[in-house]
Amino acid sequence: MLMQKWITGVMGGAIAFFAHAVTAVQGIWIGTDPSLAGPRIYFANHASHGDFILIWTVLPPRMRRQVRPVAGADYWDRGIVRRYVGSQVFNAVLIARNGAASKIDPIGQMAEALDQGDSLILFPEGTRNTTDDVLLPFRTGIYHLASSRPDIDLVPVWIENLNRVLPKGAILPVPLMCRVHFGAPMRLKDQETKADFLHRTRTALLSLSPGSEVKG
Question: From start to end of 30-105, where are the E strands?
């Protein structure tokens, strides 16, 4: 057990070091403090498989084990190495993206992690954005999760430039500076409709994108 913990710690440190070396990633905490206690839901734009790695990398090292990415089981369960990194190093909450393939409720999985005191990294677009649109429409999962745990803060996170560092289909990353912008926490309002909540959270995320004229 101690050996496994040491190995996962070394691998996590190596991944963070590599991410810093390639991207010189900077965390910009605009409306919140990374050291505040309590579980949170970090929701971010999604353009690369490396998105959550940058968020995870800019967090204080002592927090990383308690901040778990929500990721597709079909990708992270493929191969021994990928499975080990996803489940052991990143402690990911693995979701079956084909609902017919699993009887496990994904909202229940995420809510259980929050109840255990862990924070989540969530991508409300549901898939990588490979279009010319700045941000895809949000799927409803973030609303249902917020409804199930309305006392949990949701923190918008904009990842800048990673789509250029690791474009779809690329094998090797292109060295380029990245920034991760963290916005102010928000919660589901009383009597707020699903449509209003999705619009408000999407607007809050867009407002963090560089050069955006959108105001949350």
Answer: 40-44, 67-72, 93-95
